[in-house]
Amino acid sequence: MKKGKIILVGAGPGGKGLLTLRGLEALEGADTVVYDRLVSEEILSLIPSAAERIDVGKTSGSHPVPQSRINEILVEKAREGRTVVRLKGGDPFVFGRGGEELDLPAQEGIPFEVVPGVTSAVAALSYAGIPVTNRGMASSFHVVTGHQKGDSPLSIPFEALAGTGGTLVFLMGVGSLGELTRGLMAAGMDPETPAAAVENGARPSQRKVVSTLAQLKEDADKIALHSPAVIAVGKVCTLSNRYDWWEKRPLHGRTILVGRSASASPKVLDQLTALGAEVVDLPLIRTEPFSGPIPSEALEGGWLTFSSKVGVQSFFTRLMDMGLDARALGKVKIAAVGEATALRLREYGVIADLVPQQFDGVHLAGALLDRTEPFDLVTLCGAAVGSEELEATLTAAGRTVRRIPLYRTVPLPLREPELVEKSLRAGACVAFTSGSMVRSFAASLPGADFGGVTAFCIGAKTAAAAEEAGFIPVVADQGTFDGLVEKILGFFGES
Ligand code: SAH
């Protein structure tokens, strides 16, 4: 049997970018991952699908699993020969009870490893533009827990801390914020000392308050600041506005639910994330390719039009199944609805003869009419349903239109409809790249009112579907994902 092992991994304060490479490697090799509340969804999505996941941050009654039980779980799983990754927010040894979790394995001779993480004590402040030390302002920093057990008073050496002249950093201090600031002032600290609190540091939802020691509690209450937050006291807090970069990104504070086909890479979402948006990835449709030979008359002459990347892929798979390749297309002309489809054709060795100026069916139809004569054959290669306008326009102008259905689109139900509804109520927007996505989304939320919700749409047909579902559609000028991103940026820039 494989020998089990426990790897204590620091997940960092937020997204996957602040997970170490060794941490990622450990996750990818995990058989079991045990994680808690502070680990972000983005990091959890890196857990291999075959790995067992154990959430010890909450159980059905929403009480966390007791520490002693967590310790046992780690050892039990390792004894079964599993590689157990214990994922913790920030650094596992900074108020993470990482040490306690190693006692049992150390005692029992179970191999373990510790992968340090980026601690929120430093990173949450960096993301708020606060350097923990700065020449002439602070030459030390001191990380202290503000957590208190039950009703007992805080056992913090306020005098000693007030005397350091360094930056004071408090974790787990939201609940005791008033007591902390009063304690420091009672110990002789100037009430005007700059102070700050950073909630959800290094996350798209980050919020911060920059204030003074005397005012911090009141200012934090004003915005209902909540845990997790890092509290900092010291001159360096004055640098926050000058060095802030995270909250200044153009889409910071915006939540966008982005629909996607399950067969498309979620990579496109990274663009919006990089601009500061909190992006929720929603696989809304799935494509099911058809098989079978490509009818030979379609290869004899006329035009073949492709309306999507997935169509191109399915077409060439079928062609190759017939023992043919790009050379079989020597007698036909090829049109692609847009850039992305044309690029995919290139990968199969085919350069499109026609790509319309605007990437939609209407413009494709216009461009095709310019290049063909009545009775010419145009074969539409695409989804089983759709392109009706294209077909109708060509037929009305006397072209002979055939179809090769390459795939069908199947709606995918939302994985967490309650969460989606919750974020819509909190002001999130949506983005769709096809009408079928809009319909799938709406079908997952029967009875939902999308009245005030802005839907960014890649083109006119998508927008029509969004309007029908009750959204307020905003249509991209150029029918590409880049065009959609540009529209979103412009929309929020202007508002
Ligand atoms: N091991 C963690 C700390 C665990 S204690 C680390 O190294 O970061 C939990 C406390 O950490 C929270 O109460 C809060 O003070 C802080 N914290 C963790 N993640 C945070 C985040 N993203 N933003 C702000 N504070 C965070």
SSE topology sketch:
Blueprint: E1 5-10, H1 21-28, E2 32-35, H2 41-44, E3 52-55, H3 67-79, E4 83-88, H4 98-108, E5 112-115, H5 120-126, E6 141-145, H6 158-162, E7 167-171, H7 177-186, E8 194-199, E9 207-212, H8 216-222, E10 229-233, H9 240-243, E11 255-261, H10 269-274, E12 278-289, E13 303-306, H11 309-321, E14 333-336, H12 339-347, H13 361-371, E15 377-383, H14 388-396, E16 400-411, H15 417-425, E17 429-432, H16 435-444, E18 454-457, H17 460-469, E19 472-475, H18 481-494
Parallel strand pairs: 1-4, 1-5, 2-3, 2-4, 6-7, 11-12, 11-17, 13-14, 13-15, 15-16, 17-18, 18-19
Antiparallel strand pairs: 7-10, 8-9, 8-10, 12-16
Helix pairs in contact: 3-4, 11-12, 13-14, 16-17
Bound molecules: S-adenosyl-L-homocysteine.
CATH domain topology of the largest domain: Methyltransferase, Cobalt-precorrin-4 Transmethylase, Domain 2
* Radius of gyration using CA atoms only: 29 Å
- The number of helical segments is 18
> Sheet with the most strands?
9 strands, mixed
- Secondary-structure-based class equals alpha/beta
Bound small-molecule species? S-adenosyl-L-homocysteine
